[in-house]
Amino acid sequence: MNITGLLNDQVAAGGNRAAIIDNSRGTTRTFTFAQMESAAARVAAQLHASGLRPGDGVILLQPVSAELYIIFTAILRSGLVAMFIDPSAGKEQIDLCCAIHPPKAFIGCARAHLLRFISPALRRVPMKFSTDLPVFGAALLSGGSAKGRSQIEDCSADSPAVIRFTSGSTGRPKAAVRTHGFLLAQQRVLERSLRLIAGEIDLVTMPMFVLSNLAAGVTSLIPRAKLNAPGTIDPAPVFRQILAHRPQRIGASPAFLERLVDYCSRELRTVDCFEKIFTGGAPVFPHLLDKIHAAAPGADIVAVYGSTEAEPISLLSRRDILSADRNAMASGLGLLAGFPDEAIRVRILRDNGGMPIGGLTNEAFQSACSPPNEPGQVVVSGPHVQPRCLDSQADQETQLRVAGTLWHQTGDAGYFDAQGRLWLLGRCCARIRDVRGTVYPFQVECIAHQDPGVRRAALLTHENRRVLAIESKKVIDAQAMKSKLAWASIDAVKVLPRLPVDKRHNSKIDYTALQSIFRRRRLNDRV
Length: 527
Description:
Among the domains are: 33-179, Rossmann fold (3-Layer(aba) Sandwich); 312-428, Luciferase, Domain 3 (Luciferase, domain 3), CATH 2.30.38.10; 431-520, GMP Synthetase, Chain A, domain 3 (2-Layer Sandwich). Helices cover 30% and strands 25% of the residues. The chain contains 16 helices and 27 strands. It is globular and about 70 Å long.
């Protein structure tokens, strides 16, 4: 079992088809499926000749490019474990990641090797490889002869394939483990739910999905853009690349797509090549779906709800949103997320005060689940739900077992309607509960987004007061907004030039950082 076997299948089906069209370096470079497989085999041979063996961890720090995926697939086909860390996390976090799962090798571009100056843990890694320029203390990963080691390693379903480190709730990095069995199960789900069709061209903005494209025979178009900062991309060159290559599909964060469609609006341009547009990784409000439709009127626009541990959970096409649904979202019922994917089981767990839940019987679990229209925490189970973290404490915080079956606690609040559709209410920890009752973030934020001047909105408490923070460059009638939200007992509406967002997708509100902003400045009581 090894997902890179699917890449070999694509070579057999037509190895001269384009696998990756890479514009990341300013010029267009095209790599066929046969070239990708051959290059990965050569790199795998060099790694094996260096002494690396199945199960060894390899930190990979390489810009998004064809080379990244050649090395990534070489690691997977060798049975090694690809480790992804955040280079901007700082010395302490990098050293903690290396302590959680000590790597045997560090592979990166010359610039990435500068991290060795600040990180003792990286300096202690036994093997180091540079992918472009000669670097002191590192071998050049040239991908020489593949003789003697071109086969794909047969791995068990529970063999780790990828470890991705994310920031944990306690400040300690969380090591999310994806096994070979998980990757193959997720691939089957993504091929169906995202409708991956061999031969299509996909404008790639979320790097992890290139692996799925390679396995499905989809051509990945890598744009020249800062994919690590999607909310700040220059949309003009991206638009030109769309015109040049005419991709039929794109999957992107809301922040990336908003930059692109705002450009189209300013320039009075539309995109006629897109047939499928998927967006997720953050809340997708109806006004953004409408803006995307204006820029790409012929595309099926789908909002995808998922998490690092389970992708996807549910999908919602703009075409399926009825006027009654829009009215419901505009009246405080939350954000519609659509029907759960058929491969996943989703339940709503009654509030348990935020405490971890141990093993449950089926009967106890069913009793703990909420009926339709009653909010609680979204919990999921299925073959493409991440099986475990390396940190047992992190597992205890997010997982529960029901008669031996693993369920993941997403930390998101939501409910099912009478039709079986999932509605989201925001993070459980962001819920406000006081003497005036309970209100969830998305109940208020969906209404705020009805104002075309609102770019982002966030509900929070400050000094025991309910505050709606709004990001806008236009004049917002704060008093009118407050009156509209009288049912939610909003004490103040504060308009800011910018609300802090997550680093990965630049789309989710960073509530912790927002709280810090309010602590540093006194809230204007007259607003």
